[in-house]
């Protein structure tokens, strides 16, 4: 069994990969909003619920980068990374609600990825005995 040797099991690797993808998505969206917030508007319609696109861009970029860093802790089977990943996945899902009026489909996809990460980490985490 891989988890007994301190190596990540299949579900931990899956959760780390999905967390990495969600972090990259958030980082790219955040970077685009910071560089040119006109790029992230949909046909000039929609907006974010709180503040403006540039502010949301910084928030998404920072959270996305922290999610990417946390996925490497998951690969190392660190206990701190497990709960940090759950926290950042929940935070990212909540942040997507703020941009839902502007990007409903994008927000649903990213929230789905976050829910998959939370599920895999909380239900299928193999703890070495």
Would you summarize the structure shown here?
The protein has 129 residues and is mainly alpha-helical. The protein has helices at residues 10-35, 53-75, 79-98, 104-123. The chain is built from four helices and no strands.
Shape: elongated
The total tally of domains equals 1
Strand content: under 5%
The count of DSSP E runs of length 2 or more, i.e. the number of strands, is: 0
Structural class: mainly alpha
Task: Summarize the amount of helix as a percent range.
Answer: 55-70%
**Average pLDDT score:** 81
Oligomer: single chain
Number of helical segments? 4
Largest sheet: none
Detail the poorly predicted runs. Answer: none
Whole-angstrom Rg? 16 Å
In words, what does this structure look like?
With 129 residues, the chain is mostly helical. It has one domain (8-36, 49-123). 69% of the residues lie in helices and 0% in strands. It has 4 helices and no strands. The longest helix has 26 residues, at 10-35. The relative contact order is 0.21. The mean pLDDT is 81.
Q: Any descriptors?
A:
129 residues, mainly alpha, 4 helices, 69% helix, elongated
Furnish the topology, listing elements before pairings.
Blueprint: H1 10-35, H2 53-75, H3 79-98, H4 104-123
Helix pairs in contact: 1-2, 1-4, 2-3, 3-4
């Amino acid at each position: 069994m891989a988890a007994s040797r301190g190596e990540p099991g299949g579900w931990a690797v899956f959760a780390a990969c999905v967390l990495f993808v969600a972090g990259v998505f958030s980082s790219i969206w955040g970077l685009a909003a910071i560089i040119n917030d006109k790029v992230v508007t949909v046909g000039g319609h929609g907006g974010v619920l709180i503040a403006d696109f540039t502010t949301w861009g910084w928030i998404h970029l920072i959270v996305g980068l922290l999610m990417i860093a946390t996925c490497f802790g998951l690969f190392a089977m660190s206990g701190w990374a497990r709960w940090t990943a759950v926290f950042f996945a929940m935070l990212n899902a909540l942040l997507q609600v703020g941009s839902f009026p502007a990007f409903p489909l994008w927000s649903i996809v990213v929230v789905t990825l976050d829910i998959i990460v939370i599920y895999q980490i909380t239900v299928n985490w193999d703890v070495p005995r």
